Amino acid sequence: MITVLSTNLFRTFILKRFMSIFFEINIEEKGKERICYFVFFSLTVLVHSFFHFPVLNIITNLLLIYFITRLYVGVEKKKVLVTLLIYGINMFCDIIAVYSFGNYMVGEEANGMTVYITTFLILICEFVVERFLVKNKSKDFIPFHGNILIAIPAISIMILLILVMNNLNSRMILISVSVGILLINLLIFYLYGVLVDAYLKLEERALFERQIASYANQLNIMTQTEEKVRILKHDMKHHLNELMILARHQNDDKVMDYICDMQAYLENPHEYISSGNQEVDSLMNYMLNRAKTVLNHVNYEINIPKELAIRSFDLNVIVGNLLENAIESAEQSKERWLELFLNYERGMLFIRVRNSYDNAIKRKGEIYITTKKEKRIHGIGLQNVKNVVDTYKGDMQISDKDNIFDVKIILYALL
Length: 415
What we know:
The protein has 415 residues and is α+β, with helices and mostly antiparallel strands. The protein contains twelve helices and seven strands.
């Protein structure tokens, strides 16, 4: 009994370390987390003590591990993948240990030494995964090819279960197959990390491309404005002479009209905002110009200071992603409208983007799924926005009622 308690306690500890590789948890949920792991420990001890039937053990462990993943925030496919990979590692290590140090038969109780060896092998696997195989820890994202990743550990578990249930006579074959499948599933951890890294880099590249385009657009606006100022300056003596003539005749209305004409000449139709904040002005002018090109109605209200304690890259992630999604969605709707509100007040930045939409919105729980054709490139924009908002201790609310997609964001302590 001491062996069962000690090894299952250590397995529970290793399981928690595995979960920390893929998920994060709020401090407020720490109490629930402890309860979940206590339930896992208690039930696994109960099952291992009184039942020695592989199918029952597999089902129990899979359900309990999946139950624990429900405690964390993440997409469903990621939770299923993590559940299968973690249990698969446990199962493969168990079979390697049991059949390497004894003639195990289905229904028998494994000896104490093999249980400790199994736990030690699982610990080694966890160390390898954490240190060398998974780079993007706690990223709430499953690659586009996630179904294939999920299928591999699921098929691996089924293959070994069939071999064990049929009491394969050749221990060496069973051990060799288990070692091979264990290595394959460890490589799945690595492949998962590589794919996530690749998709995040694609998204990051898209952000940089948008930022470069916004700077190019802003440079074009400045060039056009500078050219108009140069021309106006060249003809300034003629304009001043005309204004002096109108002033001598005390024709105030014509003086005002002439000044208004000069002011209108200097205005750039593509410069929608000039707050003095170069990053904000560049991004806003670029995105609003895109919106006005394809939509019927674009309303905006922007009130921000010249200095804003938010990185331009982060602002690009938030506003750029929201406006890009809003423009594309509104363009496909009948009403074709968009509203943007950006306001700074008392250390808080308020962002609100509303747009019309007609297509059905897909989501699982609170996670929205992209409807874009290029799913392999897109689909993590809103999640990236949420991650940046969390970085600034902010709050994000999304509503999609009455064919209006409405995103509200508050960022705090932006002095």
